[in-house]
Amino acid sequence: MDAQEKIKQTVQGNKVVLFMKGTAQSPQCGFSAKAIQILKACGVDQPMTVNVLDDPDIRQGIKEYANWPTIPQLYVNGEFVGGSDIMHEMYDSGELKQMLGG
Description:
The protein is of the alpha+beta class. It is 47% helix and 17% strand. Helix 1 crosses helix 3.
């Protein structure tokens, strides 16, 4: 299975997926840490996370999948939401919490 197929299956098979650098318990960049904090603040305690540092094909492939150049990337119900800046804006407006069912 190639990277694009793995990404597609992961995104479609989980309600909330965050492609990030590191893990939820140990983020490896500030943007990924911020994304995890936002998800927790929205009531998502155990998001499906994919550590892009573990697989260079996934790290590059996720940028192509959504045509979005940066990581982290959030997907909800199979749809691309955005990176940490968009997540922050949506959190501030209440839109993200509503989308996540919080």
